[in-house]
Amino acid sequence: MSSIAIVTMGYKGQMWGFQATIISYILAWLCLGFAIINLLIYAIEIKFVSQKIDKFKEKEVLGQKVKILETSFPYAGLMGFSTQEKGFLQSLNKSYLVLSKGLIQLLSKEHLQAVMAHENAHQLHNDPLIFFCLSYCKRITFWLPNNDILWQDLVLLRELRADNTASKSVDFLLLAESLLIVTQTAMKEKSPLDNSMVCPFINFRLNERIDALINDDDSFRNFRWYQLSWMLLVFAPFFTIPFHH
Predict the structure, then answer these.
(1) Are residues 114 and 173 in contact, defined by beta-carbon separation less than 8 angstroms?
(2) Residues 244/7, Cβ–Cβ less than 8 Å
(3) What is the pLDDT of residue 51?
(4) For strand 18-19 and strand 14-15, is the pairing parallel, antiparallel, or unpaired?
(5) Cα–Cα nearest to 62, from 108, 124, 131, 93
(6) From the CA atom positions of the chain, what is the Rg in Å?
(7) Which of 61, 79, 111 is nearest to 192 (CA)?
């Protein structure tokens, strides 16, 4: 936002009595260029991933159409953005549900239903789109301290919310058991997937997720939009534009 504000004001004139310089103007353009190039690269990566998944074999599992990943690794997750939707905005709100053959063979019908409920909760909350945006922010702010720690906490909150939502339609014990079964099996084999546009069923901090399920953590229900009001500070640089002349 600071770079956009500086580019908008230009390098001529003064700000609160201080003469503007072309150095800050050039630096602002470099920052914007870096952000735009990263966005284009990321978007192209996601497009290729989505096109690849679209070619996966489609199968109906428990009454829902899913893409089948041909691997013994137990995997379930939302990936990419659907290329089958007609409109651009509709495609951004729809991701592919991908299940591996190994997962389908590993879990019972009840446990598989719990896993799919978890993934459908991600779709309900538009997590793939939200975390596409957040992942992009992480890319262009890699130099900030505690960047990775903040990212891991955001991912954990995403999983806790999906677990909480899924537990309303399936037995929470089935969901917790599914987490344990899939995680124990996955630890024995390397994941065939490695990209940032994945909402996988399993990840780190397993104990925290299971504890939240058992304790029926309802902190997500208490969310209020005004809690995000601090984000208005992000737009603070724009309020300085009128003082440039």
Answers:
(1) no
(2) no
(3) 85
(4) antiparallel
(5) 108
(6) 22
(7) 79
Decide: 115 and 107 in contact? Cβ < 8 Å: yes
Which residues, in sequence order, are bridge partners of residue 18?
A: 15
* 204-232 tens-digit pLDDT: 677 888 888 888 766 655 555 555 566 66
User: What are the residues whose beta carbons fall under 8 Å from the beta carbon of 31, sequence distance 6 or more?
Assistant: 3
Integer Cα distance of 201 and 194 in angstroms: 14
Two tokens, residue 144: 């900030």
Torsion angles phi and psi, residue 96, rounded to 5: -85, 135
* DSSP conformation class of 20: P
Tell me the residue ranges of DSSP E strands in 57-108.
Answer: 57-61, 64-69, 76-79, 96-100
pTM flag (> 0.85): no
pLDDT tens by residue, 105-126? 999 999 999 999 999 998 898 8
* DSSP code of residue 167: T
Packing angle of the helix pair 147-166, 206-214 (nearest 10 deg)? 40
Q: Which of 1, 16, 4, 6 is nearest to 245 (CA)?
A: 16
Nearest to 243 by CA among 57, 82, 15, 84: 15
Express each pLDDT in 169-181 by its tens digit.
Answer: 999 899 999 988 9
State the helix-helix crossing angle for 109-124 and 147-166, rounded to 10 degrees: 120
